[in-house]
Amino acid sequence: MPEKTGHSGDYFRDDQTDEYIESLHQKIDRLLSMLGLYADLTGIDRETISNAVDYCDQWGISLDEVFDHYNTFYADTPLEHQSEQIIKVIGDFVVTKLNEDFGKASGIEDFFELSGNDKHEFWFHYSDSAENCLTDLAQKRPEVFNLMSNQTLDLLVNDFGLDKILKDTKAKTHTR
Questions:
Q1: Global pTM value
Q2: CA-to-CA distance for 127 and 153, rounded, in angstroms?
Q3: What is the distance between the terminal CA atoms of the chain, rounded to a whole angstrom?
Q4: Smallest Cα–Cα separation from 111: which of 159, 56, 52?
């Protein structure tokens, strides 16, 4: 019979649940050990690997998917630059996915590009021509934004000011 725990929330745990939790802890420990070994063997510091995994989670991609796409990453990158380069490779892959989504919805290719990166993060290039492109789409074909993924829209809103562009466009339309 399951016994009541002393935790708030009054839930029940039994031996089978405790064994399952323990097996999860063991798997986590094993993965952390593998991560440490990978960091030691490649020379890529653990923080960079953690950032890489976080970025992949954030953008809904997997490291395997990234490295399948850029399968010469290690061959082309000297060891002393791999920590910084791994974030660039992930950024390049994210840009590829964003451009595929944006292009499919709008017919416009290569809208997104990276502006730079370090071993902790990457950032996107923003220009007047990007703002003009978004303004033009907002005025002439606002329905294309409904065809884009949430990730693409979030980036356009948070980094490119799409919400302001749409609001300004709507305000100009109503004043005419």
A1: 0.74
A2: 17
A3: 73
A4: 159
DSSP state for residue 41 in the 8-state scheme: H
Rounded to 5, what percent of the chain is helix, strand, coil? 70, 5, 25
> pLDDT digit string (tens) for 19-42?
899 999 999 889 888 878 877 777
Query: Which letter, b or e, does each residue of 133-170 get, where b requires 16 or more Cβ atoms within 10 Å of its Cβ?
Result: bbbebbeeeeebbeebbebbbebbeeebbbeebbeebe
Instruction: Read off the pLDDT of each residue in 127-150 and give the average, rounded to a whole number.
Output: 94
**Torsion angles phi and psi, residue 161, rounded to 5:** 70, 30
Angle (nearest 5°) at CA 164 between 162 and 169: 95
